[in-house]
């Protein structure tokens, strides 16, 4: 079957044939939630890690010449750095995974017809995103995207004759999938403590499944990192903290007559980027005509300047030698008169890919006195830097059913679509991928793609 002459122009990019009334991708849930703990909500872990939905195609007339309806699930990360002075548009792309399956094939013997008839067609799909994948990210210096693409592919024919090596532009519809990730309470922090070489005798990580009231305000769902510079002092901070929570709860406990003089907290964000291409010179960073030699870049940003707590200034009605000090610290700096969203533009949740890593560290400084210290003895000082994982929590909105029309007989995706394949890095570097909305035009009228 050939593509009608009147339909040739309609297959150009951005145009849809007149036979199509509805062509889109609908998701059963508006976002996918990954969890390193394996449980986000009781009984929902398997559902939250699955991406399910339907490709809707409503035809008012039969659509001849269709070879197949394909479905692609692609995810990628890219690190960015632009410097006009040095003519640098550095990019570090990473393909997380890429999978294409056929939802409908004209050559499938099970199809009653080789032509898509005038009807409500629905093609169900089901995919599972591995829990180790990073969350979605929109950031001036990097991004992580999960994209769904459905494509109507045409037969390579002209006026009824097959033309070798000929192809018509497919008609596509796209949808980005928001992915949220709830980090583990234990594993990621333990791994980072080992990387920092922290003394295991003085720092411990607890899952903390006790009731909230037993932890002095630290939610039991966050886990706790406990630092004890000496047996008489214990400082507890959350192992993970949601960016939507404006206050970070910290606990300082004292034993055997020790007293707290002051406690100081500083929160910083550290990001590392790796670049492979310089788009300005259209080549890899290692190319001879590239003047930029930097392949890696580190960025440090203080989210919360030193917050100081003194018992005699903050404990309402409590004695200065109290043994239990709950401390509530603002997550980020907020200048006078500024709203929180005005100063949160640089706050990014923890992320780990090959080309981009974002982590957060809390510097703790405690000054204390032991029981037998005399009035002439100096106060004892101790400090440490501990990792804390910041993340954007899932919204868990009310799920609405997919709007009508609903097909009577939907074409279901096979079981083979359940697991995306592992991606093996190609030794021969492919051209960097292009992301939507990432193009600029320079003063000479030359369009540059930023990836």
From TrEMBL:
Which GO BP annotation is one of this protein's?
ubiquitin-dependent endocytosis
Q: Which GO terms describe its cellular component?
A: cytosol; plasma membrane
Disordered: annotated segments: 410-451
Gene3D superfamilies registered for this protein in UniProt: 2.60.40.640
Instruction: Give the Gene Ontology MF terms in alphabetical order.
Output: protein-macromolecule adaptor activity; ubiquitin protein ligase binding
Could you identify this protein by its name? Arrestin-like N-terminal domain-containing protein
Source organism of the structure: Geranomyces variabilis
């Amino acid at each position: 079957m050939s593509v009608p002459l009147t339909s040739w122009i309609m297959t150009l990019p951005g145009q849809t044939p007149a036979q199509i009334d509805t062509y889109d991708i609908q998701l059963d849930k508006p976002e996918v939630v990954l969890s390193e703990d394996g449980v986000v909500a009781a009984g929902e872990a398997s559902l939250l890690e699955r991406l399910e939905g339907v490709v809707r195609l409503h035809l008012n007339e039969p659509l001849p010449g269709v070879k197949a309806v394909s479905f692609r699930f692609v995810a990628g990360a890219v690190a960015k750095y632009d410097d006009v002075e040095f003519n640098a548009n550095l990019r570090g792309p990473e393909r997380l995974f890429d999978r294409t399956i056929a939802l409908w094939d004209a050559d499938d013997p099970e199809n009653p017809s080789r032509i898509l008839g005038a009807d409500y067609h629905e093609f169900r799909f089901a995919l599972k995103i591995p829990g180790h994948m990073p969350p979605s990210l929109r950031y001036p210096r990097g991004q992580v995207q999960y994209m769904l693409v459905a494509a109507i592919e045409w037969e390579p024919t002209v006026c009824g004759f097959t033309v070798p090596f000929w192809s018509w532009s497919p008609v596509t519809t796209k949808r980005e999938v928001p992915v949220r990730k709830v980090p583990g309470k234990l594993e990621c922090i333990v791994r980072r403590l080992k990387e920092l070489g922290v003394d295991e005798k003085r720092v411990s990580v607890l899952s903390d499944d006790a009731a909230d009231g037993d932890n002095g305000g630290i939610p039991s769902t966050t886990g706790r990192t406990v630092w004890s510079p000496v047996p008489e002092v214990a400082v507890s901070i959350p192992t993970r903290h949601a960016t939507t929570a404006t206050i970070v709860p910290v606990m300082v406990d004292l034993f055997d007559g020790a007293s707290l003089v002051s406690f100081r907290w500083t929160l910083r964000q550290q990001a590392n980027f790796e670049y492979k291409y310089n788009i300005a010179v259209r080549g890899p960073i290692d190319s001879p005509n590239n003047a930029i030699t930097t392949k890696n870049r580190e960025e440090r940003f203080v989210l919360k300047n030193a917050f100081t707590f003194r018992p005699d200034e903050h404990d309402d009605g409590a004695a200065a030698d109290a043994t239990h000090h709950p401390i509530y610290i603002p997550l980020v700096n907020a200048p006078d008169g500024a709203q929180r969203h005005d100063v949160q533009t640089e706050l990014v949740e923890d992320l780990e890919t090959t080309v981009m890593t974002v982590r957060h560290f809390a510097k703790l400084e405690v000054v204390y006195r032991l029981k037998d210290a005399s009035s002439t003895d100096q106060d004892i000082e101790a400090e440490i830097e501990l990792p804390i994982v910041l993340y954007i929590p899932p919204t868990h909105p009310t799920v609405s059913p997919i709007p009508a029309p609903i097909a009577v007989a939907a074409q279901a995706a096979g079981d083979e679509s359940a697991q995306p394949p592992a991606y093996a890095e190609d030794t021969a570097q492919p051209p960097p991928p292009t992301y939507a909305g990432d193009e600029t035009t320079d003063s000479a009228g030359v369009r540059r793609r930023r990836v």
